[in-house]
């Protein structure tokens, strides 16, 4: 194994993904290892790690595997120097659609988070309201 390749365990450490998840992404064609060792071990490059991190970042926004595959394909094709201007224009349009979808999903997540924080604040207030008098009663009892 050379310095530019990593085994799956190191990739798991770097990405925070489980070995099973990394293998699964390879099986479904989202992030296949760049190479294999003589012993058949999966070997990954820095570009592979970046790809896995991109997939990981799409998960909280509920992008499906098919949407993830579509975005990765568009990004790969945009890097292809043989792509025509017309192809690039279509790919950039797809990228724009993904950007808009990601922004909309982020807004929805922020709204849900705000509601969840409000709920937690109300629970905290209720907890404080109902535990403060008990604490005061315990102190008053001990002072007698």
From TrEMBL:
Residue spans of biased composition, Polar residues class: 131-144
Keywords carried by this UniProt record: DNA-binding
Matching Pfam families: MerR_1 (PF13411)
InterPro entries linked to this entry: DNA-bd_dom_put_sf (IPR009061), MerR-type_HTH_dom (IPR000551), MerR_fam (IPR047057)
GO molecular function, one term: DNA-binding transcription factor activity
Region: Disordered, residue numbers: 121-144
HTH merR-type domain: residues covered: 5-74
Family matches, as SUPFAM superfamilies: Putative DNA-binding domain (SSF46955)
Protein name: DNA-binding transcriptional MerR regulator
Organism, as annotated: Lipingzhangella halophila
């Amino acid at each position: 194994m050379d310095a530019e390749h990593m085994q799956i365990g190191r990739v798991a450490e770097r990405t925070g993904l489980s070995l099973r998840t990394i293998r699964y992404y390879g099986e479904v064609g989202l992030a296949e290892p760049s190479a294999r060792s003589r012993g058949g071990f999966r070997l990954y490059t820095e570009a592979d790690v970046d790809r896995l991190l991109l997939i990981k970042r799409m998960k909280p926004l509920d992008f499906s595997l098919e949407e993830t595959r579509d975005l990765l394909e568009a990004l790969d094709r945009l890097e292809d120097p043989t792509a025509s201007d017309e192809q690039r224009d279509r790919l950039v349009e797809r990228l724009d659609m993904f950007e808009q979808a990601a922004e909309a999903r982020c807004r929805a997540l922020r709204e849900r988070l705000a509601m969840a924080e409000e709920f937690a604040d109300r629970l905290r207030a209720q907890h404080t309201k109902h535990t403060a008098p008990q604490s005061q009663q315990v102190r008053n009892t001990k002072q007698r």
